[in-house]
Write a structure and sequence with these properties.
Helix content is 32%, strand content 16%. By secondary structure, it is of the alpha/beta class. A hairpin with a 2-residue loop joins strand 8 and strand 9.
Length: 513
């Protein structure tokens, strides 16, 4: 580290260098703040990989109420309607904030924002930057703004390992870096490190994202919500590389179709076909693959000749595996893409643990419900970052005392990956979830490098087991219908461990459920 840790005392600590963390830091300025990033800013954040843009009701034929209706419909009865309303009505102003910070959004020759269409949206309302490189362009602008803000101290190549908690409230952050362990005594900590892709074999996320923020919060005693809802993107490039290149939903918004090896558009029976909600498209593709077919995205006619210009990142990924989208079908399969669940927060980002806030994918605001509407996640991160910053700035730093530190080994999600890939994929069943919870509990209790990833996986498995219905992205083959009442789920690490222990000793599910 290049700066004296003692000089950083009293600064709110932000864990995570993606869009949520950077925006929160910028909104806190000029209050001094400390931002911890596990890599160089912008180098290994899911935010930088985002191809889709931000959804906001900016068109002349659009209004926030329509955006809200689409979000609630996609969320399949599980959205927090008031939270969704507040976030989405603030969306247009969030776009203006980013533009002021230097984000170069795609515009028409007349200078208006160019609006794209994505699945389950009734209007064109997706704002892109640099075509399919929206996340990369937004991160470029935000990183530059953060580096130009003298009150934001950034420590790179450092990873938070534990939150210190005394008398039920957060008092500091234990982290590891190249020079060893460090402890930052502070009573105001913001989690902004989301993503669980490293827990799955097929994912579009960085493999190092195993749910670090969830593990930190859970071990601090926080309540987590809706963990069972994991979004699988239906159109990841089906090749040997991991993580898998994403083929943005915007491609289907421009007219691309999904076909099998015979050229048949097998989604004809799905309401909305290629532009149905993601969970529906992902399940249809998954089932077709399971039936022995191959599945492809056909862009040859639409977008056609403009494809490479509109989607240069995707075109480059295709060329990298020998596919010419102008002539060839693009092989696809579903891959883990986004986690609707997270640390339970209010709209100020406050968790159930005093002194701890969460923002971005790691947080569960209630916006996404059971199935995230395309491009709502970046909007949520930018909007909520302002509210989190206002809450943190208005809260006293009750401080923390220096603590003894120890060097905790870097977590390794690889032992967990086969379990979650098998039991918590596009479709689930009770017996598979039960076995996964049992084994994950054993891995957690070994207290080695797999312990934190196993803790996250076990909580997800238990939450999925306890939801005995199918809703949105959570589909149980043994419970294929909706329950009579839609209820959000909540869980803690202690309650999940208790349930998993009972599963380990019980011959049946009924005694647990």
């Amino acid at each position: 580290m290049s700066m004296d840790v003692l000089d950083l005392a009293g600064r709110p600590v932000i864990i995570g260098g993606g869009i949520a963390g950077l925006m929160t830091a910028l909104h806190l300025a000029p209050e001094p703040v400390l931002l911890l990033s596990r890599s160089r800013l912008g180098a290994d954040a899911s935010s930088a990989w985002a191809q889709g843009g931000l959804a906001a009701s900016l068109g002349e034929d659009d209004e926030p109420a329509l955006h809200l209706a689409d979000t609630l419909a996609a969320g399949d009865g599980l959205c927090d309607a008031e939270a969704a309303r507040r976030i989405l009505y603030a969306g247009p102003a969030a776009i203006e904030d980013l533009a002021r910070l230097g984000v170069r959004f795609d515009r028409t020759p007349e200078g208006a924002l160019r609006l794209g269409l994505e699945a389950a949206h009734c209007r064109r309302r997706i704002v892109h930057a640099d075509g399919d490189g929206s996340g990369r362009e937004i991160m470029r602008a935000l990183v530059a703004a953060v580096r130009a803000t003298p009150t934001i101290a950034v420590i790179e190549n450092i990873e938070a390992r534990r939150l210190a908690v005394e008398d039920g409230r957060v008092t500091g952050v234990l982290a590891n870096c190249s020079t060893g362990p460090a402890f930052f005594a502070n009573g105001r900590v913001i989690l902004a490190t989301g993503g669980i892709g490293g827990l799955f074999h097929d994912t579009t996320n960085p493999l190092g994202s195993y749910g670090q923020g969830l593990a930190l919060a859970a071990r601090a005693g926080a309540v987590l919500a809706d963990l069972e809802f994991i979004q699988f993107h239906p159109t990841a490039l089906d090749g040997p590389g991991r993580p898998m290149p994403l083929i943005s939903e915007a491609v289907r918004g421009e007219g691309a179709t999904i076909v099998d090896e015979t050229g048949r558009r097998f989604l004809d029976g799905v309401r909305g076909a290629e532009l149905a909600p993601r969970d529906m498209v992902a399940r249809a593709v998954w089932r077709h693959l399971a039936d022995g077919h191959r599945v492809f995205l056909d862009v040859r006619e639409r977008p056609g000749a403009t494809f490479a210009r509109q989607f240069p990142t995707i075109a480059s990924a295709c060329r990298g595996v020998g596919i010419d989208p102008a002539r060839d079908l693009i092989p696809i399969r579903p891959a883990q893409h986004y986690h609707m669940g997270g640390v339970a927060v209010d709209l100020a980002g406050r968790t159930s643990v005093p002194g701890l806030w969460a923002c971005g994918e790691v947080a569960s605001t209630g916006l996404h419900g059971a199935n995230r509407l395309a491009s709502n996640s970046l909007t949520e991160a930018v909007v909520c970052a302002r509210w989190v910053a206002e809450s943190v700035a208005g809260s006293p730093d009750d401080g923390g005392k220096p603590a003894m530190v120890s060097d905790l080994p870097a977590p390794d999600p690889r032992p967990v990956r086969p379990l979650l890939s098998h039991a918590l994929g596009v479709t689930r069943d009770g017996e598979g979830l039960k076995e996964a919870a049992r084994v994950l509990l054993l891995l957690l209790q070994r207290h080695d490098t797999a312990s934190d990833p196993a803790a996250v996986g076990m909580m997800i498995a238990v939450a999925a087991l306890l939801r005995r219905e199918s809703r949105g992205a959570h589909f149980r083959t043994d419970f294929p219908l909706h329950a009579a009442v839609a209820r959000r789920s909540q869980i803690t690490l202690d309650t999940a461990m208790a349930a998993a222990r009972e599963l380990a000793s019980s011959p049946t599910l009924e005694s647990v459920l």
